[in-house]
Amino acid sequence: MLARLGIFLLWLMHFLPFRILVWIGNTFGLLLYALAHERRSVANINLRLCFPQMSDAERTQLVRHHFQMFGRALIERSILWWSSAERINSLIKVEGEADFIATQGKPVIFLVPHFVGMDIAGSWISQRRDAISVYAKQKSRYLTELLFNMRKRFRNQRLYSRQQGLRLIVKALREGCPFFYLPDQDQTVKDGAFIPFFGIPAATMTTVPRLAAITNACIVPCVVKLLPGAGGYVLTFYPAWENFPSGDDIQDTRRMNEFIEHRACEIPEQYFWLHKRFKTRPEGEEKFY
To answer: Strands of 92-95's sheet, edge to edge?
Structure first.
């Protein structure tokens, strides 16, 4: 019942002016900062590991700002889910669109790290391409179905659960359907390895170079930045990576992590620090969380 009430309130919000939504999102983020003690602790631990030179005061300020950005991203999903394509597109400035256009008809993996604005990239791409993406089942069946339907809102999107594996993704990539892939969460090292992230061994999937090798797909990263006030968003596509894959999955995945590090240093308040990125540890190493 609470989930349905929350979604109803979110639906009502999409009628509001964007500037008001930004204010609500910032305020909601501050409320989460005050109440979500565990996630606040996770963010502090992540930042202490990744930016050891940062003072306690600087880290506290950054965590607070990050919660505001996270709150905005949640509230502004109301636009992505229920507003018109015209309204959505009016808020997005695209940089590197030529790199997006150059992938037309080719196997491509859009590499989308976990920044708070990642769903904005998904909305923009899905209006222009029939793409593939992977979804995780929620504890609530209602929320699972809602998220599934919202991600299929435009065109003919192909959504596969994590449990379905890579076979269907490989088939679709070979057919020229782009893959919208989020590569940077800890899903243990069953299909990956410990790859440095900000100098800390992090369980990282080696899926990107393996898929690229199997399907001959190019890798085009994209990152969304939330702008202050009513500025909207900047969606940046980067040039397709050259000499990728190299044949060394570990080095290729390290290259991917280094790219994400650089982007996180550019807009640190918008990288998803609330995730337990270093949850899986090498054997015998003390846990961080």
So the answer is: 92-95, 233-237, 218-226, 108-111, 179-181, 132-135, 158-161
Q: Which two tokens stand for residue 192?
A: 């990956």
Radius of gyration of the chain (CA): 19
Burial class (CB in 10 A: 0-12, 13-18, 19+), 185: middle
Alpha helices in 117-237 (DSSP H): 118-126, 141-151, 167-174, 207-215
Helix axes 141-151, 2-13, angle to 10 degrees: 30
- Give the CATH class of 2-270: alpha beta
Q: What is the pLDDT of residues 40-79, one digit of tens each?
A: 999 999 999 999 999 999 999 999 999 999 999 999 999 9
All structural domains of the chain with their residue ranges: 2-270
Q: Quick one: tokens of 35?
A: 């109440």
- Is the Cβ–Cβ distance between 157 and 151 less than 8 Å? yes
